[in-house]
Amino acid sequence: MSNFWPNTKDNPLFAGLVAVLLIVLIVALIFVALNQQKQNYYIGKSPETQRMITITGEGKVTVVPDIAMVNLGLETENKNITTAQNSNSEIMNDLIDRLMALGIAKKDIQTMNYNIYPRYDWQDGVQILQGYIVSQNVNVKIRQTEKVEQVLRIAGELKLNQIGGLTFGIDDPTAYKQAARIKALENAKIKANDLAEIMDVELGKIMSFSEQDSSMPQPYPTYARAEGLGGGAGTPNIETGTQEVTVVATITYELD
Predict the structure, then answer these.
(1) Which CATH number does the domain housing residue 71 bear?
(2) Could you tell me if residue 12 is inside a domain?
(3) Which of 42, 125, 134, 174 fits a disulfide with 88 by CB distance 3.0 to 4.6 angstroms?
C-alpha cells in the first residue's frame, strides 16, 4: 500500500512548499496575537484625552413682588341646609362684588371649594343630626399689592372666618430670569479665567452649558390675625418685602 504523505527526501519541492506554508502560518498567528493585544489595550480608552475644566457661576436679582395671593372663605352652619346655603352664598357673593368694585378682575377670583356636610353630635351613644355646614373658599390674586390691606379689611367687615395663606410673588419672572442668567454666565467666566491663570493654561471653546433655575421665588406665607380683621377693627400693616430670582450656570471649557 502506498503512503499518502510523500517522502520529503524523494520530493524536495513538496518539502519546500510545506516549510513556506508553516512560516506563513506562524507569521499570521503572531500578527493576530499582536493585533488582539492592541485592541485589548484600547478598550475603554479614548484615542485622545481632552483637557477640560467645569465652572459653576451664580446670578441673583432682587425683585419687589408685584402680585399677592390670599385665600378667603366662609363656613356657615344652620339646622336648615337651605338657610345655611343662602346665608353663605349671600356673603360670598357680596365679597366677590366688593372685590371687583375694588378693581380686582373676575378672572383673578377663583372658587377653590364649595362643600356641604352634616354635623352630628353623640348623645347616649346615639348619633344625632345637629345641622349642616356650608363652606366656600376663593383664591384672590391681587395685582396691585397696595390694595392687600383693603382686601383684608373687606374680609373683616363681612366677618369671614377663613382667612389665610397671604403670599407674594412675581407675575412674570421671565425678564428677571434673563438678568440673573447673564450675571451667572459672567460670574462663571470670571471664575474660569482666574482658575486658568492660576493653572497657567488657556481657555478654549465651550464644550457644554447647563443651568439650574431656582429662580421662581417661592411665596412666603403671611397669615392675617383674625382679631385684627373683626368688623370695623384696623387691619394689619402688610409689607411685600423683596425676593430673589436665582440662576446657577455650569460651563465646561476646553483647555488649550
Answers:
(1) 3.30.70.2970
(2) no
(3) 134
Q: What is the dihedral of CA 140, 142, 145, 147, to 10 degrees?
A: -80
Residue that the C-alpha cell 339646622 belongs to:
79
Residues 194 and 254 in one domain: yes
Q: Which domain holds residue 241?
A: 49-66+171-226+237-256
Show the beta-strand stretches assigned E in the chain: 52-63, 67-78, 109-123, 126-142, 162-169, 203-213, 243-255
Strand partners, 164: 71
Q: Report yes or no: 108 and 127 within 8 Å, Cβ to Cβ.
A: no
Contact 131, 118 (CB under 8 A): yes
Q: What is the pTM of this model?
A: 0.65
Query: In one letter, which amino acid is 256?
Result: D
